[in-house]
Amino acid sequence: MKISFKYEVKPADKLSPYELVNLIISHRQIKNVKEFLNPPSPLTISLLDFDKKYRPRLGGVIKLLKEIKKNNQMIVVYTDYDADGITGGAILWETLHLLGFKVMPYVPDRKKEGYGFLVIGIDNVIKEFDPVLIISVDHGITKVKEIEYAKKKGIKIIITDHHLKAEKTPKAEAIFHVPALSGSGVAYFFAKEIFNQFQKQLSGRTSEVEEERSDGKTSEVKLRANFQTDYLALASIGTIADLVSLVGPSRSIVKHGLEAFSKVKRFGIKHILKQAGIEGKKITPYEVGFIIAPRINAVGRLKHALDALRLLCTTDEKKAYELSHQIGNLNTERQDLVEKSVTEAKNIIRGRTSEVEERSGKTSEVKLKDKMIILVSEKWHEGIIGLIASKIAEEFYRPTIVLTKTDGHYKGSARSIPSFHITEFLRSLKKHLVDVGGHAQAAGFTIEEKKLTSFTTTATKLANKLIKDKDLERIIIVDIKIPVSKINLEIVKSLETLEPFGIGNPRPTFYSEGILTDAKLFGKTNNHLKIFVDSLELIAFNQGEKFKQLSRGQKIKVVYSLEIDRWNGREKLRGKIVFM
Asked: Which domains can be identified in the chain, with CATH numbers?
């Protein structure tokens, strides 16, 4: 473990809040500072801004949609089952529905059908809805054969996606592929273009768009309001949940989407917040990433994700209340399953270790023989293998692949470290795989049972060759080394101008050395730790085991982030420990 800091504040230095913010902006090499600090509203951003080729492509889509609407033909919005896909699917389906289209959503069953377009899923859509057009949300960019199959069945396909392209691009009716956005972000801008075009077409005459709804508003008025509030909030959930870098248009979506939460009228979102105990609270990327999105994801992981879509779209408050509580319970079940499975995974790893190094009577480091961790268990639930991989990769700082058996195949989920592109790695082993898709740091794939052994052997050998020892050295890059005495409320308030924090714009971190003046345990099971370094209060979640190693008066080195805890009109400075 190495700690590297970009700038050091000496005890004698004077550092104003303004200078601190400028230092961080400079270190992060932000080019357009004005736009970064004041991201433009997504309402001012067009899908056409991402690629000039989209203008004629969108024209063809609008022409096709007009024909479909005229003939009262069916459209299916075929969306992914994760939080990004569900929020994007909700935006696009509801937009088309309120515009008067005959449209149905379709969410594949994770266990029975798997991710994205598959022949079984396309057949199910044909059997159930008989559409003339399928629009994908958050998938499709790699599905060449499956889209060809749909076309032979007489179905047109439009792809909206953000995932990594494969060698071949599908021959769809139209493709809107924007890697800088989340799937829900692409869906938001695509739906907004459709609304703008049909709004122009239907302006000034009676239409389904202008029909009076049960709440007294026309569909046109509702849609205009939705793109300003509800759809922005939904797109911000998907963007944060999918770990998209918060720069450029994605930063705009999250900045304005989080602000929109206080104005959202949607029963589904309101009851998620209420059930989670965060109603009325300022919504930040933390609440979305660790409270809201996991609830939406839990449905697709353990049950059928269509219920998550129903929750986000229902106009029945009683139904929203019931679904939000069901989903909250599922999330608790998911947490228990993950905790149990991660413990099992760690036991498997410890059983393989060639050496366990002991220092001061405690295990400090597990020595692993291989540079990639591959774990296989038929007991693990398919819906949580990505979470297992994520936690193992984080703890052991190695690319991690977790596999479980399902219906004669093995489903795999992979998570990586910053220096190793896991999807490119898996695609180099495509002869062993049925399919694969993902990003630089996360991927999913399917493998035939008979190829499991050859895959694990080949993948391990290749990873050992490609991954260097220096890649596996965890480096904590800190923004500023600073004396604790320099930390105050004004400094921390100035950092809030850099929000929202997340991937691509992490919360600023500090490194300090000081004297431990107190240490306490807290939480229902005393599993959390609170320490005081001089007068600065710092907390560490799930690190209660370190309490026994601490004593008042000892010198301590700590890396932490800072925030202001606001409650009942009071402001309290608090830090969160990153490393100690």
From this structure: 2-30+475-579 (2.40.50.460), 42-330 (3.90.1640.30), 353-472 (3.10.310.30)
